[in-house]
Design a protein that fits this description.
Length: 165
């Protein structure tokens, strides 16, 4: 933060007027809170809506933006998209990944129809990126942990202890 503010002219640098350590962090926090306040009011909502409308006009960006937006809402929002936590052998036998069941489906035709689970396998440390796959229900192992505990494990790269959740 110190170096960021040093890019400003001396007359606009916080240290010119206040000389305590950490003033830059305090100003950054106030700035972030102010932006949050502005975005949560009517004017901010209109700006965000206009920005989303603009993004929805760009073909590839539209697809990526809306996908990430839905995923983020499903992870942290009220409408949870992840039903349960499973272990999935992926990408090779013997190597298991934590995955989240997002739904069920039927694949195949005629007598070859199989019930499969839709599974999202997040990556560490950013769980909004990952892999989506279909897996036969009998080939996944259900875990006896909550979605929140699984996210804690993934984000910490396995360092977090489940018993201290």
């Amino acid at each position: 933060m110190d170096k960021t503010f040093s890019l400003l002219p001396t007359v606009l640098q916080p240290k010119t007027y206040v000389s305590f350590a950490g003033v830059e962090i305090l100003i950054a926090c106030v700035f972030i809170l102010l932006i949050g306040f502005l975005v949560n009011n009517i004017i901010g909502n209109r700006l965000v809506s206009a920005g989303e409308h603009l993004l929805s006009k760009i073909p590839i960006v539209r697809t990526v933006y809306h996908g990430v937006k839905h995923l983020t809402k499903g992870i942290v929002g009220d409408k949870k998209i992840f039903r349960e936590v499973v272990l999935l052998e992926f990408p090779i036998k013997g190597l298991k990944f934590i995955g989240f069941v997002t739904g069920e489906d039927t694949l195949g035709t005629g007598q070859d129809k199989r019930r499969v689970l839709k599974i999202f396998v997040p990556t560490t440390p950013n769980p909004t990126s990952g892999f989506f796959c279909y897996a036969p229900e009998d080939e996944v192992e259900k875990m006896d942990i909550t979605v929140d505990e699984a996210f804690k494990l993934i984000i910490s790269a396995g360092y977090a202890n489940l018993d201290t959740a």
